[in-house]
Amino acid sequence: MSTNNGQQMRFTGDELNLIKNTFKGNVELLKLLRKVFLPEIDPGAPLGQLVDLWCSLPIKEMLPEQAQINILARNSLIIHIEQQLIQLNILAEMDNFTPEELIAKSNKDSAK
């Protein structure tokens, strides 16, 4: 992990550059990744070719407590994937500032 003003960053500079080069201005790619990881039910799909990752869970055979745990885990997973796609978009679109520029920007914002 790289550091920035004593703070640890989750991504290295090279990883941030890769994120920017891949996703900056490319919301369609993020939507495609969402479609891959979280496929939606397509009412226009041919019969027998419906894709829903969660249909294979044997919910009816589970105790109510276990079914609830599985459904909550599913919801958490969906939220996590969506948040990570949002994070990729934010990182890709954020401007690179030097520490001096960040201080100047912070001082300017606090003077308002």
Outline:
The protein is 57% helix and 4% strand.
How would you characterize this protein structure?
This protein has 112 residues and is mostly helical. It has one domain (3-41, 50-110). Helix content is 57%, strand content 4%. The protein has four helices and two strands. The chain has helices at residues 13-23, 27-37, 64-93, 99-110; strands at residues 3-4, 7-8. Strands 1-2 form a two-stranded antiparallel sheet. A hairpin with a 2-residue loop joins strand 1 (3-4) and strand 2. Helix 1 (13-23) packs across helix 3 (64-93). 1% of the residues are buried.
Features:
single chain, 112 residues, mainly alpha, two-stranded antiparallel ribbon, 4 helices, 2 strands, 57% helix, elongated
Principal-axes shape call? elongated
Beta-strand portion reads under 5%
What is the H/E order?
EEHHHH
**For the CA atoms, what is the radius of gyration?**
21 Å
Mean residue pLDDT: 82
Number of beta strands: 2
Strand arrangement across the biggest beta sheet: 1-2
Termini distance?
A: 34 Å
* Main sheet overview: 2 strands, antiparallel
Low-confidence stretches: none
Broad structural category: mainly alpha
How helix-rich are the residues, as a percent range? 55-70%
Our count of helices gives 4
What is the domain tally? 1
How is the secondary structure organized here?
Blueprint: E1 3-4, E2 7-8, H1 13-23, H2 27-37, H3 64-93, H4 99-110
Antiparallel strand pairs: 1-2
Helix pairs in contact: 1-3, 2-3
